């Protein structure tokens, strides 16, 4: 039987490169189409090995096939669905756009050695996991995923917010939040262009989501997530403390406002100082003609936002102001109107100080390029001047200062009247102009500019309302002309009633009330306090009746409830509710007769013991912060019946020490209430949660 023929050797129809890559090969000899297109080595010799490499170096006698796809995309590229090179420590895209590049640890990531783990956890924050990719369930939960713990025991940054959430936040921000003057520096087209290009600063993105989650509705659970975004944004800004930038400064300004709305005043106070330093380093208080109009206008608006925040935080106290002399320190023009900013239409406006009246006493009309943003900046500057005047007048006034007080008040009133006289008819307060803006995003700034004009008058005249803690001492009031005092009181009540009517008109609009800053609830509380003061001291004379005042106070409460969110605003609402239920507790010199020696009485009649180590006499901070009750004792002198009291013994604050100690105050920490922010100067916060006991000696409050 003959042997069967031996089969011929089968020729390979797939090159080893395509087989290793697991792709179809056309079997073309010399070099297949795939390898020719990609520039790979091509061989049909099955004895040749194939090595898939990430770099050019490879094992001898092997075909090097570069990896075409990264084993794992970084978090930034994954969130944007962009191609990621997967290179370490930064991918090509993050390096090009200057972004922070982080990789999510995989399930099979090995724990770091103990020494490396301790170093990574306590040293650098740039912990990058470089093992197996895993973009599974933990990350796919999107923007609501908490920060991820690394195997080393550290914490990675929270993932990039997903695109649907970010875009929804942008829409809500520019629809309901952007009109708040503090946020007017954002330009929508520029922001969206930078975001879609993947070059938007992470801190700015997180801060925008955080403030929008607080003031608008982004869905269930977003408010808590927004707070984490704000914390992360603040951390990112502080991490780059030595490299200030416009984008990080914008994020920091938003964080400061979120802190104030959330009643975290100590944090806001300190972060505002850093933001002011950022602005100085970036020369925002000077014009830069080398930039395009949009960049210059955005810088101006950012600088004016910082200035307005500064005047609100200082409340007339020069020690707390970083931009106290805004006219001299900020050498830029006022913002242009919104249309010119939105559509990139360059236009010059006016400086901060308005032009003086002409020889005949008439004021020049307002130019068309000046919009409500510029008017809002100017009215806030005028209010800072009013607060500086009243703060100085109520802090131990001398006979000479009292003599010039009516002249100073007349000059400030003249500036306020000139402000209103320059407004064109379409800018003035009327029911028709209000209804024309019912569905306009400019409704909020229109309302608040006119509310602040009324509030400036109330701030000025309330120092003549005996019984208020912000008022002049009774002895000082007695030295003033009685007709002048009576006229000032009447004007204060008139402006308060007019403000309440404005709130009623806003609430009667067919649309919902506009989202506002914390300013509107504060002004609403001040308005209600003035009305109750008029009812209790001059009801018949001013035509005030209990039912009418209660109704107007209820309008103020509704306005505060429907326009602003945040823990601080909730406290203001509680104050208005307490005022409606109990009336206004007036403070007078007789209230001190049964008081604890050395205690200061606040507006609700509760005593506040002097801070430790200050002694029995009222300090400058107490006088400025508590007004009439403290100042009735005299200018920084002990009461007459306490001149023989022995000095207070040094406190013993730390275990193991006795007597005087250089660290006596060190353990107290830093914590103070809203009196530091001009808020207590217009009584917009509840005294139930004030914490002035640990405030360092020598500070002041408005």
Automatic annotation (TrEMBL):
<feature type="region of interest" description="Disordered">
    <location>
        <begin position="138"/>
        <end position="161"/>
    </location>
</feature>
<dbReference type="GO" id="GO:0003677">
    <property type="term" value="F:DNA binding"/>
</dbReference>
<feature type="domain" description="Zn(2)-C6 fungal-type">
    <location>
        <begin position="73"/>
        <end position="103"/>
    </location>
</feature>
<dbReference type="Pfam" id="PF04082">
    <property type="entry name" value="Fungal_trans"/>
</dbReference>
<dbReference type="Pfam" id="PF00172">
    <property type="entry name" value="Zn_clus"/>
</dbReference>
<dbReference type="InterPro" id="IPR007219">
    <property type="entry name" value="XnlR_reg_dom"/>
</dbReference>
<keyword id="KW-0479">Metal-binding</keyword>
<protein>
    <recommendedName>
        <fullName>Zn(2)-C6 fungal-type domain-containing protein</fullName>
    </recommendedName>
</protein>
<keyword id="KW-0539">Nucleus</keyword>
<dbReference type="GO" id="GO:0000981">
    <property type="term" value="F:DNA-binding transcription factor activity, RNA polymerase II-specific"/>
</dbReference>
<keyword id="KW-0805">Transcription regulation</keyword>
<dbReference type="GO" id="GO:0005634">
    <property type="term" value="C:nucleus"/>
</dbReference>
<feature type="domain" description="Zn(2)-C6 fungal-type">
    <location>
        <begin position="14"/>
        <end position="44"/>
    </location>
</feature>
<feature type="compositionally biased region" description="Polar residues">
    <location>
        <begin position="143"/>
        <end position="152"/>
    </location>
</feature>
<dbReference type="GO" id="GO:0006351">
    <property type="term" value="P:DNA-templated transcription"/>
</dbReference>
<dbReference type="GO" id="GO:0008270">
    <property type="term" value="F:zinc ion binding"/>
</dbReference>
<dbReference type="InterPro" id="IPR001138">
    <property type="entry name" value="Zn2Cys6_DnaBD"/>
</dbReference>
<keyword id="KW-0804">Transcription</keyword>
<dbReference type="InterPro" id="IPR050815">
    <property type="entry name" value="TF_fung"/>
</dbReference>
<dbReference type="InterPro" id="IPR036864">
    <property type="entry name" value="Zn2-C6_fun-type_DNA-bd_sf"/>
</dbReference>
